[in-house]
Amino acid sequence: MLKKSAIENILAAALESGADFAEIYAERTKRSSIAMVNGKVETALGGMDYGAGVRLFFGNQAIYGFTNDLSEESLIRIAREGAAALRGDRIYDICGWKRMAERCINPIRILPESVSKQRKAEQLRLATAAARAYHDAVTQTRAGYLEVMKHVLVANSEGIWGEENRTRSRFTIEAVASSATEKQSGHLGPGGSEGYELFDRINVEDTAREAARIAVTMLGAKPCPVVIDNGFGGVIFHEACGHGLEATAVARNASVFAGRLGQQIASPLVTALDDGTIPNGWGSAEMDDEGTPTTKLVLIENEFGEIGIDGGFLKEAGIQETRLVISRFSEKSFRRLNCFEDLDQVIDETGLQLLGIIPEDLSVVEAVVHGKPIVNAKNAPAAQAFGRVAARFEGENVPLLHFHN
After folding, report:
1. 371 in the Ramachandran plot: left (φ > 0), alpha (ψ -120 to 50) or beta?
2. Are 198 and 115 in contact (CB under 8 A)?
3. C-beta neighbour count of 10 within 10 angstroms
4. Minimal CA–CA distance to 376: which of 144, 213, 148?
5. Radius of gyration in angstroms for the set of CA atoms belonging to the chain, rounded to a whole number
6. SS3 of 397, please?
7. How remote is the C-alpha of 365 from its chain's centroid?
8. CA distance linking residue 159 with residue 93, whole number of Å
9. DSSP symbol at 376
10. Which of 144, 145, 202, 139 has the alpha carbon at shortest distance from 175?
11. Residue 57 · residue 163 · CB < 8 Å
């Protein structure tokens, strides 16, 4: 996308007035999408976006300029205009280049652009037919397909040089169920950092039937407590906390999290992870947009043994009838923490009736990554445990999953 000599000249221009750090980010993205309503193609779009940005740091102050003109002359002009805004005390030289090693986190078997639009549209027609056939109450369907192929280049004055091709594919299906008094919808959108092999991994007809089942079930449904799962829960966390945890905001003391390291910033029940290394996960990548290799990073951590468990706050909030579900239980971790003799002591200390135990299970992570309900994985220990919790919640006499004492 950009030659090495051009990048060196651009960064040299950015450092002319004494910036502590300079970087360039360049991107070329091709995307294509198909949208189908009630079995008819409504839109079939495609296009390309490209551009580059130059960022400079003078202490904690940042200057950023961008353009869609990727010529060397244009980017040098952007770099010099940024450098002219502030002046530093020292002149830094560009370090020798250190290229990021490839880890192949997201192997691609079938490039999406190698598959015809007709084949992609046929997958949407199959899904539409399956959703409409599920129940007479299904009155409308919307199916979609998205593919994104992005090439990213990052280089900075510390010698970091990273390039990556990022491919993503997603299938979406929405079913609308109607009665005389209301309309409800069910939506599923499995996808990942993968190619057209997405359709080898999922069955679009089964996915469509599940979306239709959700819509039909919602008709006439009564209000009930809601538990937000990892999928949409991640979106809510991102909007509520993600931006505030960005280093640029924390460095300027412009974040509610600034200076709070080691302090409690969330409910004691919360542990938040940012894992960019899940194979073929939607947000997984070889590197972030600053050229740093992705990791499994703990953002907010509260160890089970350090925080204890307390159901009293629920009663204080006016919730009188409470039950205890122990999630992500691991015998090994339980023994390592050495906070309780056994699960009976946990129950005694919380004062809550035990409704169920959900074991630590990698199948849950895989289900979230691929956009599938964990209960569909019939042999997964977590799926069996959730089934038992639901049955006990409904009053059935179902034993807990067996754990060693």
Report:
1. left
2. no
3. 27
4. 213
5. 26
6. coil
7. 11
8. 10
9. G
10. 139
11. no
Task: Report residue 367 CA to chain centroid gap.
Answer: 13
Name the nearest CA neighbour of 192 among 183, 202, 206: 202
Task: Convert 55-119 into a string of H (helix), E (strand) and C (coil).
Answer: EEEECCEEEEEEECCCCHHHHHHHHHHHHCCCCCCCCCCCCCCEECCCCCCCCCCCCHHHCCHHH
260/242 Cα distance (integer angstroms): 15
Length of the chain: 405
Q: Which amino acid is at 246?
A: E
Spell out where 226-344 has E strands.
272-275, 296-300, 323-329
State the pTM of this model.
0.70
Strands 98-99 and 353-359: unpaired
Q: 25 and 52 in contact (C-beta within 8 Å)? A: yes
Strand segments, DSSP code E, in 78-159 are: 98-99, 138-156
Torsion-angle region of 338 (φ positive above 0: left; ψ -120 to 50: alpha; else: beta): left
pLDDT tens, per residue, the chain with 405 residues? 899 999 999 999 999 888 989 999 999 999 999 999 999 999 999 999 999 999 999 887 889 999 999 999 999 999 999 999 888 765 666 777 888 778 899 999 999 999 999 999 999 999 999 999 999 999 999 999 999 999 999 999 989 999 999 999 999 999 999 999 999 999 999 999 999 999 999 999 999 999 999 999 999 888 877 777 766 777 787 788 878 877 777 777 888 888 777 777 777 777 777 889 999 999 899 999 999 899 887 777 753 323 333 445 455 556 667 778 887 787 776 776 566 677 777 777 667 778 888 888 877 767 765 667 777 777 888 888 888 888 888 888 887 766 544
DSSP letter (8 states) at residue 238: I
| Angle at alpha carbon of residue 174, lines to 111 and 141, rounded to 5° | 105
- 362-370 vs 230-237: helix crossing angle, rounded to 10: 70
CB 95 within 8 A of CB 5: no
Q: Distance (Å, rounded) from C-alpha 24 to C-alpha 35?
A: 35
In terms of Cβ atoms closer than 10 Å to its own Cβ (0-12, 13-18, 19+), residue 84 is: exposed
